[in-house]
UniProtKB/TrEMBL annotation:
Keywords: Flavoprotein, FMN, Oxidoreductase. This is 2-nitropropane dioxygenase. It holds the Pfam family NMO. It comes from the Bacteria.
Amino acid sequence: MKEIKTKLCDSLGIKVPIIQAPLGVAVTPEFVSTVSNYGALGAMPLGTWELDRCEKMIDATLALTDKPVAANLILDWDQSARVDLCLRKGVKIIWFFWGDPSPFIEKIHAHGAQVIYTVSSADEAKRAVDMGVDIIVAQGWEAGGHILGKVATMALIPAVIDAVQGKIPVVTAGGVADGRGLAANLVLGADGAVVGTRLLSSYEANIHKSYQAKLVTAKETDTVYTQVFDKGWKNAPVRILRNSTYDNWVAAGKPDSGHRPGENDVITYYGDIPITRYSLSIPAPTMTGDVEALAHYAGQTVGLVNDVKPLTEILDEMIGDAIERIDRCQRLVL
Ligand SMILES: Cc1cc2nc3c(=O)[nH]c(=O)nc-3n(C[C@H](O)[C@H](O)[C@H](O)COP(=O)(O)O)c2cc1C
């Protein structure tokens, strides 16, 4: 059977060059371990969680897999305690997003662990190599969820690859929902891809059924890039499916915070926690109320998501199709 092997696989000890995006509450220990047991890299989204919740997630996930698993941490929050927890628990891959990872790199390496870091430009990639980062994720503007920069992957990936000069693996984030996207990024010179939106549309994803139904029917033109969903994280643009909260805010003339329509409306609850309009929260399975008004994170690849399937089937198809596409490209060369 044919396989795709890149230097990302060698660096991380994984079988296929795919990294699961850390998808917030959509991701459970079962979800992450299914991805890792398949041979891709599962990632725990610990970014902003309380330490005891992080600890439970790590323990439960590592109990379900002995394959590599990453912990994703968002550097707009102080991550010292979470880094220490991950290292103490034996997490061997720490993935940083949004900020400066340099204060942590030496310590992580001293524990025999590796650092993944997300960038959005060739200059940031160069700095990351100089800092000692082990693997770069280059995130394009078409990606779902919070987005660092404004360059789409087709232009970003070759620029980052040129900047990195083969010193460490480079992984695309954004624009990959099937084998065509994976193959195209390998042709651009990337060593693998982060996949988010496509995996939200899986049986294992812990999201509200109505969110999943929207992912299946939405077109590539149905997402917007906005900072309006900022309760919980300011100045952090996000790509979401356009919805009533966004449309009503636009119709009101895009007023600033404090003057936005329905700003203090409680839309739903996450457990006991009230979720108000413009919150960061995505629709979780048990939520009731006006769930449509919540942020539905999705990348432009949503137009390629047409069904809900088991994770392993999605990954199988992605790899199989990428192999076929690459084979077909090779036959174009006479
Ligand atoms: C629901 C959701 C939550 C996300 N949360 C995080 C996160 O906590 N940390 C992070 O580094 N990236 C996060 N991302 C961004 C992904 O890492 C990745 O860049 C993106 O999913 C790639 O684009 P795609 O969704 O079109 O595949 C999130 C994306 C989504 C869709």
